[in-house]
Design goal:
- The protein is an alpha+beta fold and about 325 residues long.
- About 20% of the residues lie in helices and about 45% in strands.
- The protein has six helices and 26 strands.
- Strands 11, 19, 21, 22, 24 and 25 form a six-stranded mixed sheet that branches. The protein has a four-stranded mixed sheet with strand order 4-1-3-7.
- Strand 5 and strand 6 form a beta hairpin.
- The longest helix is centred in the N-terminal third of the chain and has 26 residues.
- The radius of gyration is 40 Å and the shape is elongated.
- The mean pLDDT is about 85.
């Protein structure tokens, strides 16, 4: 069945191909294609206007030179010329090459508007008309002084999610960077700050790339550091802590029942095996006996380190007996 349909279609195609109408239609398409080609050629030969991103490159500068100013990646240029010329320039990836040895002196590379125009004319050709340029001139400060190594300080506003904790300090890599500039500027710089790191609800150790805060008149290398935010899950611990009486008058002693109470708290998983007992201090105040009507003294937590989270007492009051010595 399918073979019969294919054979029938072939016969119809051969019959149509042999007609004068078909030949006239093919000839019409050929004329349309030729006309379109001529139109494109004529259009490209007409004057047109287009925009280009011209890359900027500084060449022939010694290894001892460090640029303080940022070298612009590109200059936006609008050019008028023949369409064919503009079309060809799009595939050349135009680049403005600045010779350091010719334009640099006394810590400054100066490339004037006339220098830019001359360079663009050599790139796009003498027949081109430069309509606009995104920069008026290029001024780049540089130094030949050696870099000063200074530490990186992380500015942070980070928080772990519930059930987790940021364990330890945020660590930048590298921890030290080189600062370049005039000696009078570099001598005042003793550390480099990162931009503010802001993160919330962290559940695991995270590494982020952070820009260093720019310093006027100086260049920082590298300009970006990796910052590790150490995050660990919290685990529950319990300790039996001795209560210390305070403000006990001379000649008296205060016996507490019990003298130790259980304390519950949470720590980072890596600190589960630490001995925290000596870092927790509980006390009762002898002077509060006067205001106590229950026959018990309130137990206060007077000291514990920040690494212990959500610290609480199982018993917040104890009985007491005053003993005369």
């Amino acid at each position: 069945m399918m073979e019969n349909k294919l054979e029938s279609a072939k016969k119809k195609w051969r019959k149509l191909r042999g007609t004068s109408t078909f030949h006239d239609f093919v000839l019409f398409l050929v004329f349309v294609a030729v006309s379109a080609l001529f139109w494109v050629i004529l259009a490209l030969n007409d004057s047109a206007q287009d925009s280009f991103n011209v890359r900027v490159a500084v060449a022939n500068f010694p290894d001892s030179v460090t640029f303080i100013s940022d070298i612009p990646e590109k200059v936006h240029v609008t050019v008028r010329d023949k369409g064919t010329t503009l079309w060809r320039n799009h595939y050349r990836h135009p680049t403005m090459n600045i010779n350091f040895e010719e334009y640099a002196s006394d810590g400054v590379l100066k490339y004037s508007r006339n220098d830019i125009l001359t360079s663009l004319k050599s790139i796009f050709g003498s027949s081109s008309q430069i309509i606009s340029i995104s920069v008026d001139s290029i001024h780049l400060d540089y130094t030949t002084n050696k870099g000063k190594r200074v530490p990186v300080v992380v500015r942070e506003n980070v928080y772990a999610a519930s059930g987790s904790v940021i364990e330890g300090t945020l660590k930048p890599t590298p921890s030290n960077v080189l600062v370049y500039g005039e000696q009078s500027v570099v001598d005042t710089i003793h550390r480099v700050l990162t931009e503010l790191v802001t993160m919330r609800d962290l559940t695991e150790t995270t590494v982020v790339d952070v820009d260093l805060h720019k310093i006027k008149g100086a260049r920082i290398i590298p300009p970006v550091v990796s910052v590790m935010i150490p995050v660990e899950p919290l685990v529950r611990k319990e300790a039996l802590i001795t209560i210390t009486p305070e403000n006990v008058p001379r000649g008296e002693s205060l016996l507490l029942f019990p003298s130790k109470v259980p304390v519950q708290y949470y720590v980072a998983m890596s600190r589960l095996g630490d001995d925290d007992d000596h870092d927790i201090e509980l006390l009762v105040d002898y002077n509060s006996i006067k205001s106590s009507y229950s026959g018990k003294l309130h137990v206060q937590v007077s000291r514990y380190p920040d690494r212990l989270k959500n610290l609480s007492l199982k018993n917040d009051s104890v009985e007491y007996t005053i003993v005369k010595n």
